[in-house]
Amino acid sequence: MTAAGNIPSSTAMSLSPRTPSPSSASASAPPAALAAPVLPLVRLVTMLFLATPLDDPAELLGQLPSPVDTGDVTYADPAAALAPYEDILTDLTLFKTDAPLPATILEVNGEPADRISALDCWLGQRILERELEAINTLLCGPCHCDLCCTGPTGEQFFFEIPLQDQELALFPSLDHIDTPASRKATAYDEPPLNINGRPFYQRTSPCLIRWRTGPSLILPRGSRCPRLDQGRCAVYPQRPQVCRRPQIFPYLLEAEKPQQGAARTFRIRRTLLAVWDCPYVRRLEDAIAAYGRLCGLEVLFRTNKG
Ligand code: SF4
Ligand code: SF4
Predict the structure, then answer these.
(1) Where exactly are the structural domains of the chain?
(2) Which of 42, 91, 178, 205 stands the most exposed, by the fewest C-beta atoms within 10 Å?
(3) Is the CB of 215 under 6 A from ligand 1?
(4) 68 CB less than 6 Å from ligand 2?
(5) pTM above threshold 0.85
(6) What is the mean pLDDT of each run of 10 residues along the chain (306 residues)?
(7) Ligand 2 atom 3: the closest Cα is on which residue?
């Protein structure tokens, strides 16, 4: 079975939104945020915070000069650049305390990461997720593409959109498979979960399945999300979290498979993964590669849907 090509499973399961209408962004120019990612500025601010006696990151943000030059990027208004991330930046206080980290962070080799590296990645992952979601929203609409909302048309058998429990209500027309067998399986197990004597992905229509890892929307080959209406998402303001994500995925941290009773665990990857299927990824390859380099990430381009 080819479930998700060579994309790490957590990425292969992540899709992007259909924006409701063409945005004002130019279809040809990369957004300025790709040329000036906020992460280098966050790292500079982290160093400044550690070097000062301040206890409250907001105080430091209020004292930043303008412009700030990190060497690679000049931020004309650093306070404005950081404003969308103020809630995340409150975690800078963790650099100055012994408070437990919100999750277990491991190095690539599985050893526990040192506190500074762990916190740098913990903050950076959330900042990049938010920044790239905004970039995706600018870029997706002008592409007039519905690839993220349709099942595969090539060799893959299905596409999975992980959902949160409260998002199931967005799909009231779909069969919801929730059985002891489904709750022990994942979408990528071999042998696959059988439903009525057939692998689940041999359905011809989408369905919801509750897996060991949580619920998801399954789009079998050739099917479409039931909320896709004339090329647009009919539930765009309420669309699932995973539909808000871009086709450029930050992997400073990658979640480990959840173990029962164990703390949330992440492994440091320091990678940026861009999905080649997406038209704007192909168009902006150089700009995406530069964005990743500025963030100190290895940049990988992969094909997702076969
Ligand atoms: S809910 Fe369906 S139509 Fe809307 S963005 Fe997600 S996959 Fe696309
Ligand atoms: S593949 Fe890219 S352009 Fe197409 S719907 Fe997904 S994010 Fe938008």
Answers:
(1) 32-144+244-302, 157-223
(2) 178
(3) no
(4) no
(5) no
(6) 32 37 49 93 96 94 93 95 96 94 94 96 96 90 88 90 96 97 95 95 96 95 94 91 88 85 90 94 96 97 77
(7) 140
